[in-house]
Design goal:
Mean pLDDT: 91
Order of helices and strands: HHEEHEEHEHEEHEEHHHH
CATH class of the largest domain: Alpha Beta
Shape: globular
Oligomer: single chain
Number of helices: 10
Strand order of the largest sheet: 3-2-1-4-5-9-8
Helix content: 25-40%
Number of strands: 9
Radius of gyration: 20 Å
CATH topology of the largest domain: Rossmann fold
Number of domains: 2
Low-confidence stretches: none
CATH architecture of the largest domain: 3-Layer(aba) Sandwich
Strand content: 15-25%
Length: 299
Amino acid sequence: MPPLELAARVGSVEGVNPLEFYEREGAAVRARLERLLPPDWSFQGKRVLDFGCGSARVLRHFLPEAHEAAFWGCDIDRPSIEWVSANLSPPLHCFQNEAKPPLPLDSNSFDLVWATSVFTHIGDLWSDWLLELHRILAPGAIMVATFLGEGIWDALVGEPYDEEAIGMTTRRHWTLADAWIFHSEWWLREHWGRAFEITEIVRPPRLDDGSPQITHSYIAMRKRPVELTREDLQRADSAEPRELAALQTNFRLLRGEVDALVDELQTATTPTVSLLGAVRSSALARPARRIRSRLRAAR
């Protein structure tokens, strides 16, 4: 088991021992991944990558299979990768990746890639990373990812979930890796579906009152034989009203975050400090300008 801080880095729940949650959730994610694989799937001779593996919370549950297949993991966190290298390699293979592509891996070389709790935090670079994973996957290979959808929206945003008006919505953009990235299913089919054939989307289980569990959704995909650019993936269909609705949602929520920051600055700064200047020099300025430009372009 990893040190407490490394176990907690990949997820924790208040009141639950981080190591207990690390063990339990890793096993649960393995089970969810296996349900999304084809019925005739076998790991024998396969090459597999856990993109964003952390301290091997999921990978360690595949140690038996790692003796008959090549299981790789990568993460931006050096202490996590150093721990995996020292304790679980072999049979696992791992390396530290950079915040931006590329990965030091050959094209068309992996049969399966999964990314859990990764695209839930990738904002501006989502298309670059999606294309990079498309590059390393073999023709027809499988990718599984988690995304923040109906099961998380109400808990983190505090308002009812509207599938038609989410698209790709970003909260807390300035926190970089700690930002929250939400996706509508239609948006994933429209944009990710240009590079991958969407084979299945799994929504959170329902509680007795009909509400979704507070957990991630899953998407399973097969690599399409296409060559695309980041602009191809990002391009919004001007005839799709949901694209504009998603921009409006982003703008509304960002405006609320700006207002909250202004209130905080107004309380913390002296009267001689310009609030407008403080906001312009803050981490909110860039995303605010980007959303404003997108809304102007959509008119």
